[in-house]
Write a structure and sequence with these properties.
The protein has 14 helices and ten strands. It is of the alpha/beta class. The strands form two sheets. Strands 3-2-1-4-6-5 form a six-stranded mixed sheet, with helices on both faces. Strands 7-10-9-8 form a four-stranded antiparallel sheet. One of its GO terms (cellular component) is cytoplasm.
Length: about 350
């Protein structure tokens, strides 16, 4: 008799990602590496240290909640069957009394799954961008540092299809365009470090997998606190949509994320190709050539230029780019546009100049 369907579903999702990681790691290894090494014999072989474990290390980011504990259990199971080492990191945000004790408990449970290394990392959460964004920034900084410290090939995150639906709705509310509607990517990070195996798995499946395996989970009270936007969306917004529109809203939103991501990727590639064609010999953007581009492509070119000039990508919103776009499409002699990061955009002699002021 096979595992419970919920357990089988989470294991399959993790197995697929681990196969991707193994394949990618093997592509970086030279086929001639082993052949080029001298062969030790006799006393030399006896004195030589044991070879380093060359299997890629995959870490799971685990809060102790149902999603990440289900992910940790699936990673522990699948890693033993594949050529992968499995470890875990839990981040103590220090936002609740006793958070250090909670983190220590999570570490103990992860170690019991025979994950190694396992560690808890305490962070200080700032205030930039609001409590949710500040906690997220601190968490990713800690995970990046842990991955570098241990030489991890990938870090698994427990975001589910429900989380994806919430992200799409938040992007829709911000009016930030196709890229925001594309939600969370299955693979993200500068080096493709972060992997999200559960984007096609619903939250209930992850919780059921923990239940049938008798895995204790912790329900973060912040997830039910109406002070947080995502919490209100989860407990009020999505249920209201399902009541009004019927079941299937979460699945439809997740499908919208994938379709939007495909469109956004194509437009980003178009904008990258078009950018060099709209610059003059000195590298300045030419307004006439920008005007000839489709709006979706032109605005991407403008955003790229603003980020290169020093505007923080996370603080650069659609309204900023729309103002810069008016220098191209609605030129009436207006002055410079101020952007985040002390970046200015202004039109000068048929050229669009974007630079730090």
């Amino acid at each position: 008799m096979g595992p419970h369907p919920a357990v089988a579903a989470i294991r399959l999702a993790v197995r697929r990602v681990l196969h991707d990681v193994i394949t990618e790691c093997s592509e970086f290894e030279s086929p001639d590496t082993e052949r080029s090494r001298p062969t030790a014999t006799g006393a030399d072989r006896a004195a030589a240290p044991p070879p380093a474990d060359r299997r890629p290390l995959v870490l799971v980011a685990c809060s102790g909640g149902a999603d990440s504990m289900a992910l940790a259990s699936a990673l522990a199971f699948e890693a033993r069957k594949l050529s992968v080492r499995a470890g875990a990191v839990t981040v103590d945000h220090g936002l609740q009394p006793g958070s250090d004790l909670r983190a220590a408990e999570v570490v103990s449970r992860l170690a019991a799954m025979r994950l190694d290394p396992v560690e808890s990392v305490a962070v200080t959460v700032g205030r930039d961008g609001g409590p949710e964004a500040a906690a997220r920034d601190a968490r990713y900084a800690a995970l990046d540092a842990a991955a570098e410290r241990h030489g991890a090939a990938a870090v698994l995150l427990g975001h589910t299809r429900d989380d994806q639906a919430e992200t799409v709705l938040l992007g829709l509310a911000r009016g930030s365009g196709t890229r925001s509607l594309s939600g969370m990517a299955p693979v993200s990070g500068a080096t493709g470090r972060y992997r999200r195996p559960f984007l096609q798995v619903d939250r209930q499946t992850a919780r059921k997998a923990c239940l049938v395996q008798a895995i204790p989970v912790w329900d973060d009270p912040h997830n039910a606190d109406p002070a947080y936007t995502r919490s209100r969306l989860r407990h009020e917004g999505l249920p209201a949509l399902e009541k009004a529109l019927g079941k299937g809203v979460v699945e439809a939103l997740a499908r919208t994320a994938q379709l939007s991501r495909d469109d956004a990727d194509a437009l980003d590639a178009w904008a990258a190709d078009a950018e060099s064609a709209v610059r003059d010999d000195t590298g300045q953007l030419e307004c006439a050539k920008l005007y000839a581009l489709p709006p979706a492509v032109r605005r991407r070119v403008l955003r790229r230029a603003a980020v290169v000039a020093g505007a923080p990508a996370g603080s650069l919103f659609a309204r900023h780019i729309e103002e810069v776009d008016r220098l191209i499409t609605g030129w009436r002699g207006q002055g410079a546009i101020n952007l985040p990061g002390r970046v200015e955009a202004q039109r000068q002699g048929g050229r669009l100049v974007i630079r730090q002021g």
